Amino acid sequence: MSVNLPEYYFRVRENGAFVFRVDTENRQRRIEMDQIAAVNIRNGEIKPHGNRDLTPAEMQVIEDWMAERVALLARRDIDDIHRAVDHLNLTTHWAQARATDEQLENVTDALLLAMHDLRSVLVRKKAERLLARGDQAG
After folding, report:
1. Which H or E run contains 94?
2. 62, 49 in Cβ contact below 8 A?
3. How do beta strands 32-40 and 45-48 pair?
4. Domain residue ranges of the chain, discontinuous segments joined by +
5. pTM
6. How far apart are CA 84 and CA 37, in angstroms?
7. How far is it, in rounded angstroms, from Cα 107 to Cα 95?
8. pLDDT digits (tens, 9 = 90+) for 64-111
9. Which of 40, 46, 100, 102 could pair with 16 as two cysteines, CB 3.0-4.6 Å apart?
10. CA–CA gap between residue 13 and residue 20 (Å, rounded)
11. What whole-number distance in Å separates Cα of residue 115 and Cα of residue 111?
């Protein structure tokens, strides 16, 4: 295990993380992790653990992690959407070239409804953006 462990460890959870201070400077030379806070990146909330008061340095580390995490999740969202486009193209090729009638029967209605829903949202959002641009130009 690396000797240069970070001072803080963030145990990621769905909406944020639990924050731990990492301690290797103890008599047993064991790694100890003391929970210092819980963070919620959806609402920006930072809750100190127990009766602890977070230091300004700890708050800065947590706020920096939160900003990096939000940016990472945004990049992943876009990457997931680009992958979805690839999957749609692969699905189109599968349906045209390899799918059996039984397989198509199994997925056609679900795919058509999902694509119709997606198309409706995309068209509405595109119209909203075009109208907003028109209002700004006028």
Report:
1. helix 56-97
2. no
3. antiparallel
4. 99-138
5. 0.76
6. 36
7. 10
8. 999 999 999 999 999 999 999 999 999 999 999 999 999 999 999 999
9. 40
10. 13
11. 6
